[in-house]
Recover the amino acids of this structure.
DNA sequence: AGAATAGTGTCTATGAGACAGTATGAG
DNA sequence: CTCATACTGTCTCATAGACACTATTCT
C-alpha cells in the first residue's frame, strides 16, 4: 500500500474528551455531563466533542472547556488571570469504544481552581462536579452519593482514572498544584490541595518548610488572610518555577 | 449540533508514528526511514503508517514496528523474550502538519536493545539508526554525519524530541533503562545506557551501589562475563520492580 | 482562657556524592 | 608487569520525617 493513497485510509472521527479536575470541600472532583442521547443515555460522561476540520487538538479542547465551563485555559506558561492548566493526556482508540462508529478521542487534562461556577453554557442539571471517588466507584455503587454517577459512559472511567493518576504524579515534581488554587493562596490552602489530590494527611510544619524553601515555587504577595481561621497566614502567588527539584514526596500507602 | 450526527464530523486520517530508541556505540539512536515519495521526498522521517479500520492504536504501532524492524513489542509487563518496550507517547494533530490532508498521528515510543538488525522488511538504504543528536541538529547541519539526516520530515523532529525527553525522564523513576539492554547484562552496561541517554558521566561506584541496592531492580543470574574487559562482572536480569523509589537522580547541568 | 491555624527550631535517619582502596581478568 | 573494569567501604552533606515550641487570631 503506497503511503498517502488518498483512497486507501479508513475514515475516523476525532474527538477531544476533557478530564477537568478541581478541589472542592477537601475532595478531588471532576466535571461530568449527563448524556441526553443514546448510547448511554442518562449516564454521566466526560465533557467533549468533535474536533473541527481546521482546528488544532489543543484548540478544540480549549473551546470545549470554554463552552462547558466558561473557563479559559492557558495550555502552557504561567496563569495570567484565573485561567486553568490544560495539557494533553492520552489518546483512546479502541475500535469498539463507541458502538456506532470509529472514534479516536484525544483526552486532555484540565486543572482548575474551585471558584468558577460549574457551568456556563448548558443547563444546570446536565453538568456537575462529582468526587472522583464516586465517579470511579465499582459499578455496585458502594459510594453513598445523592445521585448515582458511576459507571461513566464509554471508556470514560478509564480516561478519568488515567487523568487522576497523571495529576497525582505531576504535583510531585511540578508546581502544578497551584493550578488548583486561586491567584493568591496560603500555604495551608496549598497543603489541603495536596491532601485532597493524594488522599493523605501531610504534616503542616514539614510541608510549610518544604514549599517555602523551594526557590521559585511560591512568591509572597505581602498580604495576609484569616479566611481559614487562626493566626493570619501569608498570601502567596505561584512563582516562576515549573519543576520542583527535589520533588514533593507522596507518602507511601 | 447534536452529538454523533454521522454526517456532522469532518473525516480524519489517523496514523501511528514510532520513536524507536536504542543505545549503540555509547550514543542514543533513533530509527529513521527515508521517504520515497513527496512531500519531503528523500528526507528522513520516523517510521509509521495508517491505523487500519478495525485495529487498536497500540496494535497498529506494534504492527508497524514489526514490519520495519522485526521487533516484537510487549506494550506492558516484563520482557518475556527479546521484546521491546512500547508505550503511547502523544498525539499530533496540527491541521497543517501534512500538506495534503488532515492527519492525526498517535506517536508511540519504543525502547529496544541494540542487537536486532536495523531492518527486516524494507531495503537497506531506506532505514537506518541515526544518533538523535544528528536527527535533531539545527537545520544548518552542525553535526558531522556521513550522511545528512536533519531536518526530519513533517513535525517529526518535535515528535522525536518529545520521545527522547520522555525516555530521559522515565529512566529516572522506572526500571525502563533495562529495556535498552539484552536479557542478561552487567551493572556497567546498564550504567552506559544511563550515560548515553542522559549524555552525562556517572560515578561507577555510586551507580553500582544504587542499582544493586534497590530491591527488585536487578536479579543476579549467577553468571559472569568479561565482554567489557577487566574483572569479570556479574550478570543480571531485570527484576519485577517497575518503579524506582527513591529514583535515580539525573545530574544537573 | 481555649481552640484553631501559622510558623520556627531541633533531632535523627536515610541517601547521594566524593573518593580511597581492593579484586580479578586481558595483554 | 600494566591497564581496565568490578566491587566494597568510608566520610560528609542535604533533606525528609517526627515533633516540641512559639505566635496570632477568633469565640
Amino acid at each position: 500500500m503506497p503511503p498517502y493513497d488518498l483512497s486507501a485510509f479508513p475514515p475516523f472521527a476525532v474527538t477531544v474528551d476533557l478530564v477537568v479536575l478541581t478541589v472542592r470541600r477537601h475532595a478531588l472532583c471532576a466535571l461530568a455531563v449527563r448524556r441526553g442521547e443514546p448510547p448511554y443515555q442518562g449516564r454521566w460522561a466526560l465533557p467533549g466533542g468533535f474536533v473541527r476540520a481546521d482546528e488544532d487538538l489543543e484548540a478544540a479542547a480549549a473551546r470545549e472547556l470554554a463552552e462547558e465551563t466558561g473557563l479559559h485555559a492557558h495550555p502552557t506558561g504561567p496563569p495570567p488571570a484565573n485561567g486553568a492548566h490544560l495539557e494533553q493526556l492520552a489518546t483512546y482508540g479502541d475500535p469498539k469504544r463507541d458502538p456506532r462508529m470509529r472514534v479516536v478521542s484525544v483526552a486532555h487534562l484540565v486543572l482548575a481552581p474551585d471558584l468558577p461556577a460549574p457551568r456556563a453554557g448548558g443547563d444546570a442539571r446536565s453538568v456537575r462536579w462529582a468526587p472522583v471517588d464516586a465517579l470511579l466507584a465499582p459499578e455496585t455503587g458502594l459510594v453513598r452519593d445523592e445521585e448515582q454517577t458511576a459507571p461513566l459512559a464509554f471508556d470514560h472511567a478509564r480516561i478519568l482514572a488515567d487523568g487522576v493518576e497523571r495529576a497525582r504524579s505531576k504535583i510531585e515534581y511540578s508546581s502544578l498544584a497551584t493550578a488548583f488554587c486561586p491567584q493568591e493562596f496560603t500555604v495551608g490552602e496549598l497543603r489541603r490541595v495536596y491532601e485532597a489530590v493524594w488522599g493523605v494527611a501531610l504534616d503542616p510544619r514539614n510541608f510549610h518548610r518544604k514549599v517555602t524553601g523551594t526557590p521559585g515555587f511560591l512568591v509572597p504577595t505581602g498580604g495576609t488572610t484569616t479566611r481559614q481561621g487562626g493566626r493570619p497566614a501569608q498570601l502567596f502567588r505561584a512563582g516562576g518555577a515549573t519543576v520542583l527539584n527535589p520533588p514533593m514526596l507522596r507518602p507511601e500507602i
Observations:
- Residues 174-238 of chain A form a domain with the Arc Repressor Mutant, subunit A fold (CATH 1.10.10.10).
- Residues 186-188, 204-205, 208-209, 212, 226, 228-234 of chain A lie near DNA strand C (CB under 10 Å from a C1').
- The interface with chain B takes residues 1-4, 6, 8-14, 37, 49-57, 88, 90-91, 93-95, 98, 100-102, 104, 106, 245, 252 of chain A (CB under 8 Å).
- The radius of gyration of chain A is 20 Å.
